[in-house]
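ingest -> validate -> predict -> emit
validate: passed (alphabet ok, no gaps, 91 aa)
predict: started
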Amino acid sequence: MIEIKRYLLVCDCYFIEHQLIFEYLTDEEPDEKSLSINIHLTAWENFFQRLVAGIRYAFGHKSRYGEFDNILVSPDEAKNLIEFLQKFIEE
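emit:
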């Protein structure tokens, strides 16, 4: 039976858009296993920031440095993440 294991890590600032989602399938062969990491970047709080970002997007603007954001991880959350990743390695 295919099962998806997921771990949701939310930033310590509790802003829901600062999150990482780790997931993997339990039935994959050991040499074909892969861990998917999904991240949401850049949340604009100000209307004008969103408007400028939308206009840039509409005209195809891309930063040569890429889009970056950060996430704060507490020690307890780091321990939980390590346990999740250990299960990924062992299954």
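Residues 4-90 form one domain.
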